[in-house]
UniProtKB/TrEMBL annotation:
This is Oxysterol-binding protein. Keywords: Coiled coil. It holds the Pfam family Oxysterol_BP. One of its GO terms (molecular function) is sterol binding. Residues 1-29 have a biased composition (Low complexity). Residues 1-33 are annotated as: Disordered. The lineage of its organism: Eukaryota, Fungi, Dikarya, Ascomycota, Pezizomycotina. InterPro entries: OSBP_sf, Oxysterol-bd, Oxysterol-bd_CS. It comes from Podospora didyma. Residues 408-435 form a coiled coil. GO terms for cellular component: cytosol; membrane. Belongs to the OSBP family.
């Protein structure tokens, strides 16, 4: 779903585990028809109580329903805003091209922030889970950097028309001024048959709030997984959101390339515009993508201006050879120039380009810069959801269904009441477990958390994904 609805309180830009609720709920007067301005004013009045608190996630304060997006947390966060970018990973034979495919996916995973405003979904309950599919075309332009070397500028190529390169609609406009025709292949494996991606996530821990996720695409020999957890701090003018200790990023494995695995580490981000009344996500930190098998690493340095000035949303990056046993290069300036294979950059909410070799991006003429992704024409891809009659009580859309109905009908008092009943039921279950000396265990994942950051599926989890790949949603025989 898109995040272009009412600007509610923020959730983390890179992780799906927002702060959970606690008995000490912030008291806010219910308002049946709140305006955007009144929402923001109420939100700020709550946040001011937490100035100086090290981690908002550990405070576990609850927001009134009129400040929430009517969407479960686990549904909202998934990283597959552009699933055709995901299934293109591993297509290229060259390792440099493959890490570029990973980076293209990276720049599309949070389209909701480039295309809309941030929002605050429901907090997740322990044991809550969400599953869905995506049906996507295999239409991502192919990346071939070897063909770029010694190629003619795209502006003189025969495949251009009216100054535009005919690129599939899935991944950008393909402006011929910044894309070489020889780097883009129009071949599609099977245009009549979409590729299916299946997704499963479960809230595995409540203290701290952590969720595990698994993305599966057997047809392309791809899977991705990870734990999601955030820490958040209110500075007085913005909210800084960072990965928690159990969030080591997204791990993408390309099974058909000898199971080479890419670790994508999240940067810290800020939710700003609180005082201006226009919420937006900015990034002013460093992100990393590493692949020990190919010995390639990417450093992405995000730049942003101060809170009083307009955001630049710029990113500068490099791809270089590194030593997995001695991974000590944390800044672009730390990398010897002779080790740099690719440079890339641009506004991450617009268009990212790359060039080959160690020379600075700015030293290359426009016709030598190749577009890796153009965000402007993209939209968040729709999900394929299980029929509501085949969803169990702990499934996100079912669990929060009555709260969602009340919010959509603007019955905010009722929504708050139902929400509080759900939260109290969760606390009662926790008290019962403590009384009986029981340890809670996830259903679909082996671990609550894991120091390696790569959760393992249980037999039930594998079966859920196997059925989803067949388009089957009935869980009878799994957890019934």
């Amino acid at each position: 779903m898109s995040s272009t609805t009412a600007p509610s309180a923020p959730s983390a830009p890179t992780t799906p585990s927002a702060a959970s609720d606690a008995p000490a709920t912030a008291v806010v007067a219910a308002e049946e028809h709140p305006s955007d301005g009144s929402k923001l004013k109420t939100f700020l009045s709550i946040l001011r109580k937490f100035i100086g608190v090290t981690d908002l996630a550990s405070v576990r304060f609850s927001l009134p329903s009129q400040l929430l997006e009517p969407t479960p947390n686990l549904e909202y966060w998934n990283y597959l805003d552009s699933p055709n970018a995901f299934i293109a990973i591993g297509t290229a034979d060259d390792p440099v091209d493959r890490i570029l495919e990973v980076l293209r996916f990276w720049f599309t995973k949070d389209l909701k922030y480039a295309k809309g405003r941030p929002c605050k979904p429901y907090n997740s309950c322990l044991g809550e889970y969400f599953r869905c599919n995506w049906e996507t075309e295999d239409d991502a332009p192919r990346i071939n950097t070897k063909a770029l070397k010694g190629s003619a500028p795209a502006s003189g190529a025969s495949s251009t028309k009216s100054g535009k390169l005919a690129v599939p609609a899935g991944l950008g406009s393909g402006d011929s001024r910044a894309a070489s025709t020889v780097s883009v292949s129009q071949t599609v494996a099977n245009p009549a048959k979409p590729v299916r991606i299946s997704y499963l996530t479960e809230q595995t821990s409540h203290h701290p709030p952590v969720s595990a996720f698994y993305i599966s695409c057997p047809e392309k020999g791809l899977h991705a997984r990870g734990f999601d957890q955030i820490t958040a701090k209110f500075t007085g003018t913005s909210i800084k959101v960072m990965p928690g200790e159990h969030n080591l990023g997204i791990f993408i494995t390309v099974e058909r390339r000898d199971h080479e695995t890419y670790q994508l580490k999240h940067p810290a981000a800020h939710l700003g515009g609180l005082l201006r009344g226009a919420l937006s996500v900015t990034v002013g930190d460093v992100a990393y993508v590493t692949c020990p098998e190919t010995k390639l690493k990417a450093i992405l340095h995000y730049y942003d201006e101060g809170w009083l000035t307009r955001s630049t949303n710029m990113v500068e990056g490099i791809i270089f050879r590194y030593d997995p046993e001695n991974d000590d290069k944390l800044r672009i300036k730390d990398v010897p120039v002779e080790d740099i294979l690719v440079r890339l950059g641009g506004p991450w909410k617009d268009k990212i380009v790359f060039t080959l070799g160690p020379k600075p991006l700015s030293s290359h003429p426009v016709e030598e810069q190749t577009t890796i992704i153009d965000i402007a024409p993209l939209n968040v891809a729709p999900k394929v959801l299980p029929p509501i009659e085949q969803q169990l009580p702990n499934e996100s859309l079912n669990l929060w269904g009555e709260v969602t109905k009340a919010i959509l009908s603007k019955q905010f008092s009722r929504a708050t009441t139902v929400k509080q009943e759900l939260e109290e039921a969760q606390r009662e279950k926790a008290r019962e477990r403590e009384k009986n000396g029981e340890t809670w265990k996830p259903v679909f994942f082996e671990q609550v958390t894991d120091k390696g950051g790569k959760p393992e599926l249980t037999e039930k989890g594998r079966e859920v994904l196997k059925r989803a790949q067949k388009g089957e949603w009935n869980l009878e025989g799994i957890i019934l």
